[in-house]
Design brief:
The complex is a heterodimer of chains A (224) and B (400). With 224 residues, chain A is an alpha+beta fold. Helix content of chain A is 52%, strand content 15%. Chain A folds into two domains: 10-14 and 132-223, no CATH class; 18-127, no CATH class. Chain B contains 14 helices and twelve strands. The chains are: A alpha+beta (224), B alpha/beta (400). The A-B interface holds A 14, 16-21, 23, 25, 54-58, 60-61, 72, 120-123, 125, 127, 130, 132, 134-137, 152-156 and B 12-15, 17-18, 21-22, 25, 167, 170-171, 173, 175-176, 179-183, 328, 333, 337-341, 346, 371, 374-375, 377-379, 387-388, 390-392, 394-395. Strand 1 of chain A pairs antiparallel with strand 6 (180-182) of chain B.
Chain lengths: 224, 400
């Protein structure tokens, strides 16, 4: 099999997250619920997605800030678990995700006599992301080049082309899978990449999994 | 002096190249930092590295200092204490003196820059003299979560005229009509406090400090201040000592601005009396190598604060791969991801339990130390600070 050369190269873009404070905080789960209903989408995204930009190597207790706060600061592990299992990629957009989070908290509170609140811990401070796109100047025209650059590019590029592309830019498959399918004509590899569970891991782990999948295809090309 | 390339091996892969790409968006622009001191304190230490790295990456970075009378600095010291929640008497005469010195400095300084960053309250009123061009940012390094209202409302009239404000923790944010950004403080991995030490250097420093190395060491580096809970640390050590033969080192300076400092130190000495395994070290403010050597020699590092601003000593110890147990307060909770990069605790018993747990499970200690170092590499190194400045410049440039 002759390795395919893309007509349009893949341009690697990284990003830098500036963290802006919304100026709102919650001391109990009712306040958390009310704030989640009203915060801007960029804030919802900050607390459910860009978590990975801040924890590139280490998966924290839960992959979203609401779950971690409930479990660690309020010490309500039940709500932490309910929110922690949420996968934002199951939802069409941020508004659908917002509705689900509100429903989970609302249902949880309806079963309690007392609203759980912070006693010893920190209040929840709402933040929002200001994502600065950073073109890296790196481009790939073949799977070999793609794999080589992916191994060394800043981890924020992994975030940008998967999390940011899917969530805010509406490219549901993610940029890597889309380019590999359309430009390299490797639909099977593209499908495997888009099936990776981005949400339950770290950026480094996502990077390694994609590299491993690329290596499988590349070694097959060499054998053939 | 260190340059960006010197950090290449210490920061996450691709970071330096990535920062160079980010800098392309603002290359050639001028940023002017203004604060009130060139020497001493964390702000000056951080600015020195920041300015060099910004220049190295193609930004025209400049750093200027305001000058002031003794009366002015007494006033700003009162402001500082009041903003951090201490009750202070602030008279109209003091406010006038503050404004007069700011106006004098405004006549002397040139604000010809694309971005002017004013650090802390001392020069905050310079905004009165801002020219029409350029974005002005107020960088607040202190904890103003519970300010004395009179002083904050006086200062706020200036802060609202900036284009943005920066705080070190979300809970320091205030009700302001301008964007407020979060930028964590950072450590310089190439400074004397954090650079690698050879075993020989380390043992020379420890022997100079008369600290033995024959027993596992618990260490807390902090001022002798009630908020750092040094007596709680001794109680913790005693609980652990029942089962483990170890030593405790309490190292730090006196809080010169805290009249209670001497009292706390004598209480600590009294509590440690007759125990040859407790070492109390009173260090000068520039004892960077000493702190470095102690942190590297420690088995477990404590920062059992009851109240804390950011607590960068935690990041310093984490950078050296040490497991840290810290009080569940302020910036410590940001640095110690519970059970992953360290442990936060709320009591003497909690701290003692975690020390037991770690000493009995050395593999957990190793894993936490490794993850802690990676976490600092990602979040609390000076290169991250550089990226935040570049991103902020880019963002504010676009906003205009």
């Amino acid at each position: 099999m002759v390795p395919k050369i893309a007509e349009h190269p893949f341009f690697f873009t990284g990003c830098w997250e500036l963290r802006e404070m919304v100026g709102r905080s919650a001391r109990d789960e009712q306040q958390l619920l009310e704030a989640i209903e009203e915060i801007p989408p960029d804030s919802l995204s900050f607390h459910t997605h860009s978590f990975f930009l801040r924890h590139k190597y280490i998966a924290g207790p839960y992959p979203n800030d609401f779950a971690t706060w409930a479990a660690i600061q309020v010490r309500d592990r039940v709500l932490g678990e309910k929110l922690g299992i949420l996968d934002p990629y199951d939802f069409e957009d941020l508004e659908a995700l917002r509705v689900e989070i509100v429903n989970i908290i609302d249902e949880h509170l309806s079963q309690l006599q007392i609203i759980p609140r912070v006693i010893y811990g920190e209040p929840f401070h709402f933040m929002q992301s200001r994502i600065i796109e950073v073109p890296t100047g790196l481009e790939a025209r073949s799977l070999t080049e793609f794999r080589k650059i992916l191994a060394t590019v800043d981890a924020s590029a992994v975030y940008y082309h998967n999390f940011e592309a899917i969530l805010r830019l509406g490219r549901r498959k993610g940029d890597f899978a889309l380019w590999i399918e359309e430009q390299l004509d490797l639909p099977e590899l593209a499908q495997k990449i888009s099936r990776i569970d981005f949400y339950m891991t770290s950026l480094e782990s996502v990077r390694h999994r994609i590299i491993k999948l690329c290596d499988e295809v590349l070694s097959k090309e060499v054998r053939e | 002096m260190s340059r960006l390339d010197d950090y290449r091996e210490l920061v996450p892969k691709g970071t330096v190249d990535f920062l160079e790409c980010l800098a392309e968006q603002v290359k050639g622009r001028k940023i002017l930092h203004i604060n009130s001191t060139k020497l001493g304190g964390g702000v000056a230490e951080m600015l020195r590295s920041d300015v060099l790295l910004l220049q190295d990456i193609g930004i025209e970075a400049e750093w200027q200092i305001i000058s002031g009378t003794e009366e002015f600095f007494n006033v700003t010291k009162s402001f500082h204490n009041a903003l951090q929640g201490q009750d202070q008497h602030v008279s109209q005469q003091m406010l006038d003196a503050y404004l007069e010195v700011n106006r004098e400095n405004a006549r002397r300084l040139s604000f010809d820059a694309d971005y002017v960053v004013i650090h802390d309250p001392q020069p905050a009123a310079l905004i009165e003299s801002r020219p029409t061009q350029g974005k002005w940012v107020w960088r607040c390094h202190i904890d103003i979560s519970r300010p004395q209202w009179k002083v904050w409302s006086f200062l706020k009239q200036f802060v609202v005229n900036y284009d943005a404000a920066i705080f070190s923790l979300p809970r320091f944010a205030q009700r302001l009509p301008i964007p407020q950004f979060l930028i964590f403080p950072s450590i310089d991995p190439l400074s004397d406090k954090n650079r690698d030490l050879s075993p020989r250097e380390q043992s020379q420093v420890l022997s100079r400090l008369n600290v033995p190395t024959d027993k596992p060491m618990l260490l807390q580096v902090s001022r002798f201040d009630r908020f750092k809970d040094p007596l709680g640390v001794i109680q913790t050590y005693r609980l652990v000592k029942k089962h483990h033969d170890l030593q405790l080192v309490l190292a730090g300076g006196e809080a010169t601005d805290d009249p209670e400092g001497k009292t706390v130190l004598s209480e600590v000495r009294e509590a440690a009396r007759d125990d040859p395994d407790i070492h109390i070290l009173l260090l000068p403010p520039d004892a960077n190598l000493e702190i470095n050597a102690l942190q590297r020699a420690a088995t477990i590092v404590l920062q059992k604060s009851l109240r804390e601003g950011f607590g960068l000593t935690v990041a310093e110890a984490m950078w050296k791969g040490k497991p840290v147990i810290g009080g569940s307060t302020g910036g410590i909770t940001v640095q110690l991801v519970y059970g992953v990069t360290g442990f936060t605790v709320n009591s003497v018993e909690g701290a003692a339990f975690r020390i037991h747990h770690l000493l009995d499970n050395p593999e957990v200690m190793t894993k936490i130390g490794e993850d802690a170092k990676e976490y600092v590499r990602q979040n609390f190194l000076i290169t991250r600070n550089l990226g935040d400045w570049l991103a902020l410049m880019s963002y504010l440039g676009r906003a205009s």
